[in-house]
Amino acid sequence: MFVLVEMVDTVRIPPWQFQRKLNDSIAEELNKKLANKVVYNVGLCICLFDITKLEDAYVFPGDGASHTKVHFRYVVFHPFLDEILIGKIKGCSPEGVHVSLGFFHDILIPPESLQQPAKFDEAEQVWVWEYETEEGAHDLYMDTGEEIRFRVVDESFVDTSPTGPSSADATASSEELPKKEAPYTLVGSISEPGLGLLSWWTSN
Amino acid sequence: MQRGDPGEHLGARSWLLGAVGGGGDSCEVKDANSALLSNYETLKYISKTPCRHQSPEIVREFLTALKSHKLTKAEKLQLLNHRPVTAVEIQLMVEESEERLTEEQIEALLHTVTSILPAEPEAEQKKKTNSDVAMDEEDPA
After folding, report:
1. pTM given for the model
2. Torsion angle (degrees, nearest 10) of CA A116, A117, A119, A124
3. A7 beta partners
4. Cβ-nearest to B88 among A101, A158, A201
5. Which domains, from first to last, does chain B contain?
6. Burial zone of B128 (CB within 10 Å; 0-12 exposed, 13-18 middle, 19+ buried)
7. What is the per-residue pLDDT across B107-130, written as a single tens digit (0 to 9) for each?
8. Which residue intervals define the domain RNA polymerase Rpb4/RPC9 core in the entry (chain B) (predicted)?
9. Do B6 and A203 touch (CB under 8 A)?
């Protein structure tokens, strides 16, 4: 679920922080810059793990701050393909079931990856697994807040860095902001025995 | 790391700075946008998994015990993270478990997992009472 990523970056420490220990200042700057941010093709950065190497700090003309090149390792959330995770159902929509991990919310289980046969209950806006046994069909609802075990089948990174000014748009678009895209999304699946709501598989 | 600013996570609540005033001046909040801690959420998530009771020694012991089963790194990692107790869960985490492991091996694996990796304290209590009942029922030998 979490990986250590080795990174290199130059950290700028302003002069009014020179009295602090360099390591502490650098750790804080790195956390400020990266924590809770998604790095393209790497994952969601959680926190600094350690600093492996500090190179010499330089002060450049015109800027009183020191610049230090730092080699460090960062804890990053990046589940591998086919990993099993346990999350909570955030909600259901016609696009599928939305799952959240508490610190990461952009997980979707599309309808074709649900336990089949499944149908969407329009009245309650919830997905239902129509489980057939000899006694008849049981409707197993996927309610919000339930814990769910799923497999990660796909991930996608979207580069959300700002683009330059777009070519002259004569017609002002009606919406103020373009649709916000999640920089990192996961696609899950529960179409295997053992996957789905934990309550479906407890053998008590 | 030269790509420019990384994208902000949707619904982002960035790392809380708190008052980091230098020596002596009044405390000031540097970043007014930071409200909640995402690291706190991560910690909360992890504290609900079986991992919270593990220590480096337990992990080492577990990995040594698993050497004979010939599992990949990813499979061992998932066993550590989830502490499966049923054969169905093992099948999910170990690829092609039907071909690679016999039933006794799956049972042995489950036993290794449950004996070395500590469980939640209340779950242990519940299991003790349950297993007493089960033992009475299934006593062929």
Report:
1. 0.76
2. -80
3. A72
4. A201
5. 55-119 (1.20.1250.40)
6. exposed
7. 888 888 888 888 766 554 555 555
8. 1-120
9. no
